[in-house]
Amino acid sequence: MARILVVDDEIGIRELLSEILYDEGHTVELAENAAQARESRLRQRPDLVLLDIWMPDIDGVSLLKEWSSQGLLNMPVIMMSGHATVDTAVEATRIGAVDFLEKPITLQKLLKTVAAGLARPVIPASMRSRTERPPPPADPVFTQPPALAGGPAAAQPMGAAPADPAPDDSHLGRISLNQPLREARDEFERIYFEYHLLHENHSMTRVSERTGLERTHLYRKLKQLGIDTSRKKSSGG
Predict the structure, then answer these.
(1) Residue 29 pLDDT more than 80?
(2) Which CATH superfamily hosts domain 171-235?
(3) For residues 108 and 128, is the Cβ–Cβ distance under 8 A?
């Protein structure tokens, strides 16, 4: 699940993208202009930004340039427009945008572009030296521990009792890690929401505040996960 900021002055576009991305399990923040986008960017760093080019106060390319000059362009940004020229798209890419979506945006194109953007996070120049791996050692003898080089028996002293078998690390609590990511994520979200429902006495208002989801999206998420909402009617939440 990713935190995605959608910046567009058209309410229809914001609502459409929000619905699609929520259904994919993402957390979505909405902004209708550059001022709101700045505030949201500072309040909670998004994992990805969908940024419209043409907006009433400051255009998306100028905001992208502002973030880049201030060292705030440390998340993938995908530009959107229905009227942009090739030169505008090229300029946005040169500044730091990872991709461009042309309106009207199709469902397949949106999901494919967002997935690609999340798979290639932007690393700030100041942090690249920390993330670069050191070159492998010149002597291959020391590239693996002696226990691996000599087999299991080499790791035990003479006469020592056999080591205990390695613990089973294929589960995280009740969640099996030997399953597709989407299914593991659904299991985690089901446990997560059931926990908050229990601790908030099934008050949808308090669960909404606690989880940061609007009530409409919360109901949709619970339905998507197969969590029964009928029992909440008596709670008055």
Answers:
(1) yes
(2) Homeodomain-like (1.10.10.60)
(3) no
